[in-house]
Design brief:
Layout lengths: L1 H10 L3 H7 L4 H23 L13 H4 L3 E2 L4 E2 L5 E3 L5 E4 L9 H7 L1 H8 L22
Antiparallel strand pairs: 1-2, 3-4
Helix pairs in contact: 2-3
Length: 140
């Protein structure tokens, strides 16, 4: 019976094909296998499945455990804001933000850096600004 059950579980074909392998009728074969699994099931549960209960309870509260979890991306990690120049060089990377800090809050905390670097430097005077916003923001 055990061999027949293992073959049935491994090949997972139709009852007709599986019963033909053992020279039995499909109805008899399926009843026999199902009854054997019903008898075997409680033993296998007792032998191989442990009741977990509080064995794996977290040591700290759930909020403390998820310190570096980003729900937006579904990942764990340090959240930083990186400023990149047009030539693909990182010119500024902020300190990591602990907990659930929004992107906008990080930007506001770093606003001084952005404002300073938006202004034209003396070396930028030869760069022509011929776009639509040059009159509104002449120093940028």
């Amino acid at each position: 019976m055990l061999f027949m059950t293992l073959v049935t579980l491994k090949h997972a074909g139709t009852w007709d094909i599986l019963s033909a392998s053992f020279d039995e009728g499909a109805a008899t074969f399926s009843n026999r296998i199902n009854q054997f699994i019903r008898v075997l099931h409680p033993y296998l549960v007792r032998k191989y499945i442990d009741e977990q209960g509080m064995k794996t309870a977290p040591a700290v509260s759930f909020g403390e455990k998820k310190t570096y979890f980003s729900k937006k991306h579904g990942l764990y990690g340090h959240k930083v804001e990186g400023s990149v120049a047009p030539n693909d060089l990182a010119i500024n990377v902020t300190n990591c933000a602990v907990g659930s800090t929004s992107d906008f809050e990080m930007f506001k905390a770093n606003l001084g850096f952005h404002s300073t670097h938006l202004e034209k430097q003396p070396s930028d005077t030869n760069v022509s600004a011929n776009d639509a916003l040059r009159d509104k923001f002449p120093s940028q």
